[in-house]
Every structure is written in C-alpha cells, then in structure tokens.
C-alpha cells in the first residue's frame, strides 16, 4: 500500500491502497495506530499554532521537497503566487515564513500529544465487528453506504445511551430518518475516494472490454462490488483510512457532532413537550414523532441544522437550532402593523422561542384556487417586500420564501438588519461606490426580486430570487451524478446542477405564475405598504415601539456568498485533499484572497480564521452581529469591534426617518427595473406596428437643425439629473444593463462598455458638448468616462478580462469612445487613456477570443484599434502598436474561419451557426477585415472578407429583400430581421461602409444591396426606438447611405422617419425620454446607454442635425 506523501496526485495512481487478503474482523493494528492518523490529519491552523513554539525560534529552515511544493501551493492559493503577498498574509497572523515552513515539515513539528474526542469515535468504528448491512433497498441509495455503517452504528449506540427515555418520543421510522441523514452525509464525504479505490481495484480484476460488454448487456452485477466492500468491512477500511487520514478525521468528526446535535435535539424535544403541545397541538395530543426530515439547512456551529417533524396528530413543526430572537421581533412587528390596519395581510406561522433555539410552525406550499388569489398573493408579496426592505433584509432567495396560498411567507429571517461593512472596496470611483451603496440599501438587496446570477464562466445565467425561478435553470455549480449505484458498473460524473421551480412560486392549475405578469399587483402592494409605513413613522420610532426588539437579536453576517463555501466543500471532497491535513488547509487558504488587496491588516481579518475553522469541522461558516452593535461576533464568542459603519438598528431607524414619497418613487423604479430585466431579451421578434404610408407617420414633417439640437439637449439635462455623481468628478447611472455575453438584462450601475455603459454615455455627451459648446456637458462627459479611465489605470488586467476585445461590449468600444471623445471635447488626456486600452489588447486576450464578432470579439477590437490609429492625437509609435494589434486580431479571424454548409468560408460566431448580420455575423466581421486590409495593405484580409460576403449572399431572399436570420429560424421565429444588429439594415450599412473611397451609385449595381435598402426604407414604425434594434438604427443606416451614395431621397426618408419617432415620443413627453420606446416590455424604465438608451437618442438626433460634425457610431467611423 502507498504511504508516500509526495508524487503525482491520487487520481494518477493505479494500485489499490489496501490489501483485501489481509482483511479480517479485527481492531486497528499497531501498524496503523490512530495516533498517526491524528497527526497526519492535523489542520494547517493546528500546525501553525504548534509552529509558534519557542523552541522553533532560530531553527534551520527545511529544504524538503514536500515542504517547498506545499509552500508553492500555499503561495498560489492565498496570494496569487506573490511572495510578498504571502509574507503579508502570514504577518497579519503574527507568523514568519520560517514558522510556515516548520508547520509544513513533520521533521520540525512536534506531536501535539493530545488525543481528540473524534479519535475515540474512529477507534470504535474500526473496532466494530458487526458486518451486517442496514437494509436500504436492493442496491442501496447512496454509494458505498454499507462501508460506513460502523460509524452509523457507533453513533446510534451513543445516542440511545445518552438520550434515555426521551428517545421514545421518536418512532422507529423517525429514528431511522436521523440515521439515514448521518449515513448520507458520511457517504457524501467518502464516496469519491471510495470510487477511486474501487475503480483501481476493479481494473485489476476486470478488463475494460469485459466491463464494457457487461454494461452493454444491461446486466446489473454486484460480484466485484460485494467483494470490494466486504474486504473493506472486514478490516480493509483501517488500511484505507490510514492512508486517507483527513477522510478518517472528517467521518469521525461528522459522527461526533451528529451525536452531540442529536442528543441536544432529542433533549430539547422532551423538555419542551408540554409547551409544544400547547402551541402546536391545538385540541389534540401531538403523539409521537412519526416522520422526520433532517438536514433541511446548511450545517452550522457543530453541524447543527434544521429538522422538520411530523407528529402522529398530523401537526408539523420545524426545529431550528439557532437563536430565534429576530423571528420573534419580526412576528411582533407584523402583529403591530396588522393591529394598526396594515393594507396587506401577512402569513404568520406560530413560533416557540427558546434560549438559543426554537420551534416554528411548518409552512406548507399550497396552490391557488383562482386568479384572484394569485393577484392577492403578488399584492401581498409587494407588501412583504416593503417590510423586508425596511428591515434591511438580504438573502431572501427562492429557498427562503414559501407561497402558502395567498401569503408569501419568509421562513429564514437570519439576514434581517444587514450590516454594512466599514471598509470600502479599494478600487473604483466615488460614483461607483455611491451607486453600490444605493443598490445595497435598496429593495433589490433583499434578493426577493428577480436578479440574474452570472456563472464564473460568464456563460451560465440563472435566477434564485424569492420571486424567481419559474423554469428549470442550469447553474454554474457542479454536482456528482452516480450511475448504477453499488454495482460492478458504478460510475460517477459531474454535471451542472439544475434548479427546479420551487415552493416560492404560486401555482394555479398549471405552470407557476411569474412576477412579471403580476407587476402591477406587486407595485400596488409595495406602494400601499410603503405609504402606510410613512403614516406610522412616529409609532415605529418610539422607544417602546415594535423595532426595539430587534436590537439584541443576533443576525447573520454574510462575509461572502455562501455558495462559495459549498463549492469549497465540494472541491475538498476530492481524494487529493483527504490524505493530509496540510493539503486541505492550503486549499482553504483561498479564503484569504478576499482581503489580500488591502495594504494593512483589515479589521475583519480574524473572521477568515473563523471561516477556516468552521470549514475544517466541516460546517458552513456562520458569522453574526447584534443590530445594536458595530461588532462582528465569531463562533468563539469573540466580538471584533468597528467592523461595520454603524449598528444596523441605527440604519433601520434612519430608513424609517427617510420614508417619503420621493424614496417610494425611487424604490418603485428599482422594482420596475428588476422585473423588466427579468423578462427582457433581444426584441428581435417585435413586429412593426405602423406602416409608413399611414397618416401621421409617412407624412411627418422633418425637424429643423435647431429643433433636433434642442430636443437632444433636453435629453442631456435628463441624463444629468439621473446621474449618480461622485465628489471625485465621476458619474454612473443605475439602470438595466444588457449583458451581451449571456443575452440578459441586469439592473445595476453602468459598466465601462460602449454598448450600455459609461463609454457610450460619455461619447454621446461629448458629441452634445461639441455642438453646444457647453462646458458643463463636457464635464459630465468626462465624469461618465472617469470610471473607465480609472479602471484602465488601477486594474488594467481585470478590466481587460471583464471587457474582452469587442467593439460594443469590450476594449474596442472603450478605445473608440475615448478616442472620439478626445476629439470632440479637445481633451488629450483621453487619447492617453485610449493608448492604455490599446496596450491591453494583448496576444493572450486575442487568442482567448471565442466570439470573434463585432460586438464582443476580435472583429470589434479591429474597429476600435483602427479608429485610434487614424486619430490625430495618436503618436507614431502608438499608431504602429494599434495597427499591429489589429493585424493580430485579423490573424485570429483568419484562424477562426470554418467551412459553411454551402461550401464558403465564414465564422460560427455563436459557436454553432454561421450567422448573417453586422453585430454577430459575417457582414460585421467582413467589414472589419475590409477596413484592416485597407489600412494594413494586406490582401489576405480583403480576400477573407470577400469570401464571407459571398457566403452571406447565399442566404439572401430576393422576395423578402433581406438576408435570412438563422437565429430566429432556429427557434421557429420569422426568418428575417430588419435592424442594425441583424438583417438588411446592418448588412447594407456594412457593404456601403466597407470602402473608404467615394462610391457614387456603384454599390447599387448589386441588386441585393438595392433590395436591402428598399427593405430598410420601407420598414414601418416599430415599437422600439433605439439604435441597436429599433427605429433610430434604421434612421442612421438611411442617413449614412444617402450621404455616401448621393441620394437625397434616402436622407429625406431618414429625417421623416426620425420625425415620426419624435412625434410619437412628444405626444407623451415633449422634453424627456419617457415617450420613446426603448424596450417594448417596459416603456417607463430609464435606460441611459448608447445602443439601447437615452445616449443613443442624443447621438442620433445630433447626427441628424450635424452629419458633417459627427461620425457614424454604428460603423465605428
């Protein structure tokens, strides 16, 4: 058997770690003493504590290979590979590098001499001689569960001995459910290691061909599996756990804590029985507990978790092993509000609060009888949302809200009165900080409203909000999937976890009803409750009022997203981290990264050690605070003062004082924005609603230059009023942002991109400043660009990684915005910043590009880089650099060419389909390559562009006068789009814009371009106005085409169509943007961006007024 601690990871070894021939029912032999397992399983923190011993001072540092390997891994886990960062991390704990080496070196580190309690559990389990298997089904429900039965039996014996007569409160089935819960937990920790060992062992007894033949035959054999598990149960487990010492510790600690928590639960059940009968028994005796569902929450504070009980009487109660003071305070508040005539009704489960724990009535998910009940549910949801917002709640996700008839009932209130940390983030502008604070204190922070979670891969997107999760959703999380469990053919693989519609959603004879369809009911309930709270401000604020009870009730503090802890636990179940405590502890050092960007030791630094301790237990860490304190409570009982800006109770009282009609309007806008972002998609399928020949549309009178200018400047005033401004001269906006990579909207502060972020807003404002000569507008343009500029200086690598290379969503757009804004407002500092962005378009970034297209990929980077190279402010050296990187992007595009089904080369820009169009398809990429070919003088780029155009033309539909839209066809939609992003307008624009030379009418000799122009000009007035996918995008195409081709009729058509858009908008709002239809699903939601928002309106109106002074932004001129 292997005992080496170095070499390749366990997954690469091909020898079984125990010898079945030696197995027999016997206690652990002296050859593998428990004390050695204890020493090998010591945690990194336990080793560091020992390394502080005085005798180590001045000792020679070890140069062992294992020590240096582990030190290298530690450096990367905690400090991104930086020596000085690791030294800083150690110093913050009062440690030196020499002590860290000593902690990793068994030759220097003494034995603790202490035998922990879990070692006795391990000894008893390995001494267990009972080889019978608990009956759980023909092939078992969990992998290898019979191997771990000794731990379950040890636990059962100790609980029965300790519980006494209280154990009789539980029926046999309820006791079995508790044991099953322990067994499942143990299996989850051991299964991967046992599967690895079984796979290696099986390979020596069955060839791969035999295993394949057995699998294909459909037989379910258990001969090898039974032999393997029998060998383990008859003594081989001792050998295996001697090798996997950390696994031995985990199994023993989990068992030890299960015994402690179960005895505590049973004792409390017995002691509280009379009161439970009084509170939950109604007029009928409760009877024994006949059913029990353990582990209904994450394990905290010694692996204690929520348990649901069903009594013989039918009563259902939930046991919560934590302080329920905040639950009691919340219930008292609801009662107080109801007594004063609250305009909504609350679901209030019965509650029994004890010292450090409590019992709560089980809240059952119940369907609705009719649509009226569903309406009431969402109206009540608005009211509950209002109260939770008032109380500073967070983490009200889908698992924490139950739709109980017409009542949305929060069932986990531990994150009420959320504390705000005293430390600000190190990077970013003051405007970004203010926007972040606004959002953190807004109704969005409750997590009850829909919000998209974006996976680490940037591709998966899902919603786990309290009112969300309507459909099955694939997440970024990986979960183990077992096939043919406990048979010879057993396998394990990882798949993305899927979230299913849950009990948070109301059901009415069919699929769950979503919040977007009941937006008005939510807004109505929120408004009614908010106005009621305004009327009750004085009573709420009184010294003996309903809020004072929250002051001493501990609430949970989420230092980071709890899903991170789950992912760490999952990684730590890998066999490589179950051999030696050092390897597991080093992996947990990733928790340090949260603070490693700080130059000084953060106030909250001790919390990281508390997290590691909990994770080693293994628990999900639980940090807490009292609402009347600014200190953080650790599980050790230590309170770290000054961690928060103020006590959260004070924040609550300030929120009560701030209740007003203005703050109500602000929160209603957040709610609308969130619901809008939840349902909004690319509006490509929205049809035109009014033909150009209809009265009031085709005969609209074009606006004068002055009218266009004044209308645009009025929109600038609105944009300025909506800005979140920082004292450092920065500005951002809070609005739905289109996340190009995932095709979703997110209600958040504006990012750095051209499409919907500060770069695009800044460019539009720079244009307004240029035509108006207004210095205040120029300053606002600089304020909008400041977050991008500071990000390029402070966090260049991170900014480049977040943006990517594209022209709309990436660095190409940032370069373009900075370059053109510098010209428009005459500020050379912006050109310097543009050069910084140019340098970030690195070969590595280009090589990693999978999108390739104009919006997100290398084609877009070319357009931004060439715009910079052609600017007057660029130096010769930086011009050469920009052109060189554009050529690198061109080479990436050539490398990405694939053969289409029709035989021509093009790009599968979405990974699967060879799209047409400007934004993601062949037209846009060909346009970028044509521009590059002209600048670089390289025919290979022009040839590739010509090939792509020939491919695109194979998809031209003469009857429709348009190119096929393969995206829409794939989902059964219309086969043609008529927008800049997809369809004839953008394709025609690309063809016309691809040559920088005067074209005359030559391009119209191509009948496809001529038909495409007819289609663009004849498309009706659509119910979307913005640049990307709406009316003003077609206006820009017609304006540019008319000017380039010398066709006044097209220019006139552009002005007429723009006038029709303005007429419709002015009828609703003659000065602002609310009359414009920036999205068909939510006309009232304010969107500031360039491609889908107010900035795009401003730029297009000014370009119509001053076409000689402003360039076509849709061509990145």
Features:
9% strand; 1117 residues; globular
Description of the molecule:
This protein is of the alpha+beta class. Helices cover 48% and strands 9% of the residues. The chain has 39 helices and 25 strands. Helix 31 (876-895) packs across helix 32 and helix 35 runs parallel beside helix 37. The chain starts with 33 loop residues before the first helix and ends in a 12-residue tail after the last helix. The model is unreliable at 1-30, 683-687 and 997-1001 (pLDDT under 50).
Distance between the termini: 69 Å
The largest sheet has its strands arranged as: 1-2-3-5-4
Determine the structural class based on helices, strands and strand pairing.
alpha+beta
Shape: globular
Which spans have pLDDT < 50 for at least 5 consecutive residues?
Answer: 1-30, 683-687, 997-1001
Largest sheet: 5 strands, antiparallel
* Whole-angstrom Rg: 33 Å
Overall pLDDT score = 88
| Helix proportion | 40-55%
Our count of helices gives: 39
- The fraction of residues in strands falls at 5-15%
Number of strands: 25
Could you give a short description of this structure?
With about 1100 residues, the chain is α+β, with helices and mostly antiparallel strands. It has 39 helices and 25 strands.
Helices and strands, with pairings:
Elements (H helix, E strand, L loop, with lengths): L33 H7 L3 H8 L13 H15 L3 H10 L4 H8 L12 H11 L21 H15 L8 H32 L4 H10 L5 H21 L1 H27 L1 H8 L8 E5 L13 E5 L4 E5 L4 H15 L11 E4 L2 E5 L9 H20 L10 E4 L2 E4 L19 H11 L11 E3 L6 E3 L9 E11 L7 E9 L19 H17 L1 H5 L13 E3 L4 H11 L8 H8 L17 H11 L6 E3 L6 E2 L5 E2 L7 H11 L2 H19 L8 E3 L14 H18 L1 E2 L5 E2 L1 E6 L4 E6 L8 H15 L2 H20 L1 H8 L7 H15 L2 H13 L2 H5 L10 H12 L6 H20 L2 E2 L5 E2 L15 H15 L2 H15 L2 E2 L4 E2 L2 H5 L13 H10 L13 H12 L2 E2 L8 H15 L2 H21 L25 H12 L12
Helix pairs in contact: 2-5, 3-4, 3-19, 6-7, 6-11, 7-11, 8-11, 10-11, 14-16, 16-22, 23-24, 23-39, 24-25, 24-27, 24-39, 25-26, 25-27, 27-28, 27-30, 30-31, 30-32, 31-32, 32-33, 32-35, 35-36, 35-37, 37-38, 37-39
